[in-house]
Amino acid sequence: MMRAFLGLMIFVPLIIFAQDKNQTFIDEDSGKKMLTGYCTREAFEDSAFSWWWNSEWEMYEVNDETLAPLKEKMDAITITIVMGTWCSDSRREVPRFYKIIEKLNFPEEKIKLIAVDRDKKTESIDIEELDINFVPTFILYRDGEEIGRIIEAPQESLEIDMANMF
Asked: Measuring CA to CA, which residue among 82, 84, 80, 81 is closest to residue 117?
């Protein structure tokens, strides 16, 4: 009996949390489906998003040479990404970033992906402390301390800008 109760205590919050991800709404300006709140990469399998996600993913050529020194520096890193599915910069940079992350064998559970509306807000998450003015914003943390941001578009490339944070 106690084992079943403990199992429920662990399992139920996981289900509840999982249901809070990949939420969508219809954008009043465009009439299109948009993501809001916490998301996972699986959200982009939806046909409303997959057309641009897959295009950028396939087209982007990762600079493997730049990634080599990054691989050993990523252990203590966590990443927060704030994006808008309505934003052309997010549509371009976020799939590319995920392609880089995959090449680095970086665990996706160390990435917090947050989708916002056109006002850079989401009803379910208070992101004011992140000080987001433009999307996408990629924030890298080492041991919980922010070490750098890539805002809207990289200065040189996503790989080089990430390497310059170390």
From this structure: 84
